[in-house]
Amino acid sequence: MNYDFTSISDRRKIGSRKWAIVPEEIDPLSDKLYPMTVADMDFDLAPEIRTALIDFVSHNVLGYSAMTESYKQAVCNFLEKWHKVCIEPEWIVSTPGLVPALSACVRAFTQVGDGVLVFTPVYPRFYQVIREQGRKLVDCPLEIAQDGLYHFDFANLESLLETHAVKMIFLCNPHNPSGRVWTASDLQRLAKLAKEYDCLVVSDEIHADLTLPGNEQTMYFKALADFDEKAIVLTSAAKAFNIAGLQSSNVLIPRSDLREKFQAELEASGIQAANILGMYATEIAYTKADNWREAVLQVLQTNYKLLVDFFSELDSRFEVMPTQASFLAWVNCEKLHVDREQIKAVFMAICFFVEDGVSFGEAGSYYFRLNFAMPTEELKACLQAFSERISPYLHSVD
Length: 398
Prior knowledge:
This protein is an alpha/beta fold. The protein folds into two domains: 24-45 and 289-390, Aspartate Aminotransferase, domain 1 (Alpha-Beta Complex), CATH 3.90.1150; 49-288, Type I PLP-dependent aspartate aminotransferase-like (Major domain) (Aspartate Aminotransferase, domain 2). It has helices at residues 17-20, 47-59, 69-83, 98-109, 124-131, 154-163, 184-196, 256-269, 276-288, 290-314, 340-349, 376-396, and strands at residues 34-35, 92-95, 115-120, 136-141, 143-144, 150-151, 166-172, 200-204, 231-235, 249-252, 319-320, 328-332, 352-353, 355-356, 367-371. The strands form four sheets. Strands 2-10-9-8-7-3-4 form a seven-stranded mixed β-sheet, sandwiched between helices. The chain has a four-stranded antiparallel β-sheet with strand order 11-12-15-14, with helices on one face. Strands 1-13 form a two-stranded parallel ribbon. Strand 7 (166-172), helix 7 and strand 8 (200-204) form a beta-alpha-beta unit. Helix 2 packs across helix 9.
């Protein structure tokens, strides 16, 4: 099937969060506005999913939902085919999105005052679910090596595990905001330390199915010596199939004692399974729409190269960290040698909205995260407009 990745969907009037967060003083209907923030894609829904949802809504009641056997088997088969990991259907717990799942993990497996370690910079919701529930955030900064990629600082990690009463480790695999795909050897080393210090690792793998061509994603489960180790993996079709608004995710918990404790926390918190449309769309995505996912990866690869070449030609002081997965570019502008608030003001003035790097942690202070998941010609137009609008400012800080 030939897929359309060239049409531009106007999302300004349908409640899109990407457009809703534009400051009130700016007209959201302006053609001069470029929001490249929220991590979803500006591509039409896969036709296999759209057709299936229309048919489902036309012939079924939209009542309360529970996982079907076909749904669980679809999840198992997809992970085995693409990630070479065999899981059991009973490991799967459905949740309405990954953030509620992260929050429930913190409540279920730690106590107030316990340490929860994160590798920073990282997805801002990690900080939120830890701090808001009275746990101690343990910051383990990532290092940038000569290859330009983030790497774990294992010496610092072990020191923190020894001294900060860490009970849980949040892992972003692949990494958000940089798109780093962690190596199998690094994950094995992490798993070994987690076992030694009796820490539960919760691995958010929502971007794993968008690993770009030429890179190899390792699911955290593959790093374990056996499934008796304390590990939970969170997955979802939301990013790879562009169905984030349907709020459906899976929490994979091999150990029955951990799974029962997690399910008890969900029940106590009033968190139910994902909605019926979210689960059905996920099942269709995993069983019938994978050709669409593979096609979109080619578009993302093209867009990423376009973006890297653009910043290289525009001004070498913008440094794009190599992206190995997903559709988010992590761009360093520290070499402009200006105050980060000034940079933020310039972006606002030229109507380009990107994610402020400081929201990902102090290490992101001079970065911004840019979403390049859009039709290639639209990305070219965005970047051309960006060049025209920011060039006078760049010349002023030479």
